[in-house]
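User: If you would, consider this record:
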Amino acid sequence: MASRKSSIDWARIELEYLANEDSIREIADRHEISDTAIRKRAKAEGWVRAVRTANRREPDRSPPPPPAIDPDKRREPGEIADDGRGIVGRMLDELDTITSRRGELEDMIVDATDGDEDDARRDAMMKAVSLPVRAKTMQTLALALKTLNEASAPQGKKAAQQEKANAIGGGSRFAGLGPPKLKAVT
C-alpha cells in the first residue's frame, strides 16, 4: 500500500492556486501531490484562479490584414492557383502536426475540461481531433488541390483554336469574315 504524505499545506497550495502564477502541475510537483488532488480540492472548495495578464501575453488571434489589391493589375489564373496550392500545403502541414501529436492534444483537452460539469465541450474538442474528422479534412484538401490543378492547366488544342477563332471573328459567331485572301497558284 502506498504511503500518504501526512502534512499537506493546503493553505499554501490554495494561495498559489489563487495567485495563478504557476500551472497546477508545477504547484503539485512542488508540494509532492497530484495535480488531480489540487483540482478536486479547488472544485470542492470553490477556488477561483486570478486572471493572468501581466506575466503572459495572449497571442494575437486576429487574422492578418489582406494584401492590398491593385485594381489595375489583374492576377493570372496560374498565380491564383499557386497561392491556393501554398494554402493547401500549409493546411496539410497543420493536419500532419495534429495527427502526429494527437495523444498530447487529447491530454491537453482532458486537462482543460477537467472541471467542466458537462462533458459536451470535451466531446466536441475530442471529435475535432478524431480520425473521421481528420480523414474528411484530408479528403477536402485533396479535392481542393485537384480543382486548383485543373483550373490552372494549360488549354488543349481545341480550346486554343476556339479562342483564336473568337479573337478573329470579334467574339461573335456571325461576325464577318473580312476581305477575301488571294493566293498565288504556281
Q: What stands out?
A: The radius of gyration is 32 Å.
